[in-house]
Design brief:
By secondary structure, the protein is an alpha+beta fold. It is 24% helix and 21% strand. The protein has helices at residues 2-8, 12-16, 60-72, 107-110, 132-139; strands at residues 23-24, 29-32, 35-39, 42-46, 54-57, 76-81, 90-95. Strand 6 and strand 7 (90-95) form a beta hairpin. The termini are far apart.
């Protein structure tokens, strides 16, 4: 997950909603068309930020890690409502990243709980996992300092 965030610039919800069909290993592209988000305490698939899909380049280093992940963990087809938990519209996606119980990952708990396939070390069962921002910062050689406060112009 960290490689997709740092190497492709994907947001956390977009990574969690990424299906194996969204990756074109041969052409080197990732098609970002959905995210997993929380609506009224329920997980749903939904549009990405700005309500549009996009294609992003897939670096060779990220492609290698993703291929290894797909070889080690077969994608899990998961059906969730689209945008609204009460909606009858359902979407099924063969997700790359799921929990150990074969469910969608809640981004609010994935940064504080470990033990799922989404964690950097699948065998790791620590009570706390580092947040995605801290993992991305570590990959880039820095340290995440939290949100920056920008003074308002006077």
């Amino acid at each position: 997950m960290v490689d997709l965030g740092a190497g492709c610039g994907l947001r956390q919800g977009e990574i969690l909603g990424l299906g194996v069909d969204d990756i074109d290993f041969d052409a080197g592209w990732v098609h970002v068309s959905r995210q997993v988000k929380l609506v009224r305490s329920r997980l749903v698939f939904g549009l990405t930020k700005n309500d549009r899909d996009r294609r992003v380049p897939l670096p060779d280093s990220v492609a290698l890690v993703l291929r290894q992940h797909v070889d080690n963990f077969a994608p899990v087809s998961l059906t969730l409502p689209w945008e609204d938990p009460a909606s009858d519209e359902r979407v099924t996606v063969p997700l790359l990243f799921t929990t150990t119980r074969r469910g969608a990952i809640n981004r609010r708990t994935s940064t504080t709980r470990a033990g799922g396939r989404h964690h950097a070390d699948p065998g790791h069962r620590d009570a706390r996992a580092p947040s995605l921002l801290r993992l991305v910062a570590a990959r880039r050689g820095g340290e995440h300092q939290g949100p920056r406060v920008v003074p308002r112009p006077r």
